[in-house]
Amino acid sequence: MLDVRKLRLLRELAHRGTIAAVAEALSYTPSAVSQQLAALERETGVALLERTGRRVTLTLAARALAARTEPVLAALAEAEAELAAYRTGLTGTLRVGAFPTAVRTVLSPALVTLSRTHPGLELRVSELDPAAVPDALRADAIDVALVHEYDFTAGPDEPGLETEPLMEETVHLAALAAGPLRAHRAAPWIAGTPGTLCHTMTVRACEAEGFTPRIRHHADDFGAVLALVAAGQGVALVPDLGLLDPPPGLVLTPLATRRRTRIAYRRGHAAHPLIAAARTALHTTRTPPIPPAVGDRGKPGCPPDAPPPLERHR
Length: 314
Fold this sequence. Notes:
Layout: H1 4-16, H2 19-26, H3 30-44, E1 49-52, E2 55-58, H4 60-84, E3 92-98, H5 100-117, E4 121-127, H6 133-138, E5 144-150, E6 161-175, E7 188-191, H7 197-208, E8 214-218, H8 222-230, E9 236-239, E10 251-266, H9 273-285
Parallel strand pairs: 3-4, 3-5, 7-8
Antiparallel strand pairs: 1-2, 5-10, 6-9, 6-10
Helix pairs in contact: 1-3, 1-4, 2-3, 5-9
Keywords: DNA-binding, Transcription, Transcription regulation
GO molecular function: DNA binding; DNA-binding transcription factor activity
Organism: Actinocorallia herbida
């Protein structure tokens, strides 16, 4: 019978690409990962890895086996969740990952509710960019997470994971002067670090309007982004939850672009008591989108209505 632990290593190699990355994610040594995968090859009697120097690639047989591993791990997770339901009281550790604006606005009240409702629960929070969440969940580094996507950055479904909708926000153009997105095509722009969803969304939203933004500054904290806008350093796109304390003098123009937050967890874990408690707390205490303190209603001259819907890119 195939060893589930070895199958999991193969699954991780299919996702991460290198033995070193698998070893780092799962707290193994690279040699231990190599030994386990070699043992899996012997057990199956089929070549799973093609070795070229120090690099390895998966054979077609290995990719087929890795794909078959996902439903096996999901079935085991469902069995684990069913057994956990028989325990009395909710105890143990719940590890939650979330992006910065969600930590202070959405996650914090949910943590208060969880602590009061389940005092035996130990809560641990990690700040994670949504792009890092799938690997963290599959590696069992966290149990549940908050992720987001924009209209222009929706990605493919992640194998082995499930998500459910939590909330939706409006994205605003933050500037010192009124006008639709295309009116700021010549302005310098402020965006997130390249590789983040916020950076990608900014670039694609501008491209949908017929221009490529000239990005002068990169900042991942929306407070810093708004401070740069207020200092006349450029314009930026900011969702509702990034507008908690906007500096005075900003013009915030609501766009048709939306940011959607979802709850993510490993497939088969939805009914696990820990995950179910987290889901319930998040849905119960979720913070609705916060209207901007300045903008179309707070500064004369800013158009009262959002511009026409932008073309949606996926």
